[in-house]
């Protein structure tokens, strides 16, 4: 199956076809926005995982270097903490202990730095969403729970628990009063 991508241009109110997407997206992943681009976990072939991003300025897909702690077949999740792209790596098959690594300088493989260890029961995805003022890390767990995790005391507080079959996706955003060019009648 071939994936086609189109980008909508607000100025011209038109779509532009972009190069074919030469990867398979991992079904459990959602797009993660960091450094002005959207990232996904994808594979070039079965069980060979990469981080792929779409650069809106260049209108092309690129691979982002992974930290050395991730092998070719390592399963991981993506998130954002302190504005940095993060990977979450399960430490064992029980999925109760995780490491969170952040790319401190975007695009530089050597800048991957281990931030924290998280001890929390998880059977699927663990997505870091941000920090609270008190230092706790907000994480989405299994698309069912929003949890505040205190890395110093290794305590957790469930903030949201959904029984919805479809679960939920926690997202972060940056407020802005700037409208996309040409949208809502604003033009240069």
From TrEMBL:
PANTHER family: BNACNNG10540D PROTEIN, F-BOX PROTEIN CPR30-LIKE
Name of the protein: F-box/kelch-repeat protein
Superkingdom of this protein's organism: Eukaryota
Higher taxonomy: Eukaryota, Viridiplantae, Streptophyta, Embryophyta, Tracheophyta
Domain F-box associated beta-propeller type: 3-168
The species this protein was found in: Actinidia chinensis var. chinensis (Chinese soft-hair kiwi)
């Amino acid at each position: 199956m071939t994936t086609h991508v189109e980008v909508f241009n607000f100025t011209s109110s038109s779509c532009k076809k972009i190069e074919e997407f030469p990867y398979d997206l991992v079904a459990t992943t959602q797009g993660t926005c960091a450094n002005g681009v959207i990232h996904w976990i994808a594979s070039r072939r079965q069980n060979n995982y990469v981080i792929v991003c779409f650069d809106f300025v260049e209108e092309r897909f690129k691979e982002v270097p992974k930290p050395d702690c991730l092998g070719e077949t390592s399963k991981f999740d993506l998130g954002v903490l302190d504005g940095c792209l993060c990977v979450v790596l399960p430490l064992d098959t029980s999925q109760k202990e995780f490491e969170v690594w952040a790319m401190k300088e975007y695009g530089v493989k050597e800048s991957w730095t281990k931030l924290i260890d998280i001890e929390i029961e998880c059977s699927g995805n663990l997505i870091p969403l941000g920090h609270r003022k008190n230092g706790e890390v907000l994480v989405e767990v299994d698309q069912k729970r929003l949890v505040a995790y205190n890395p110093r005391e290794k305590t957790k507080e469930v903030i949201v628990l959904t029984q919805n079959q479809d679960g939920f996706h926690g997202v972060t955003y940056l407020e802005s009063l700037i409208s996309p060019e040409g949208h809502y009648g604003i033009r240069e």
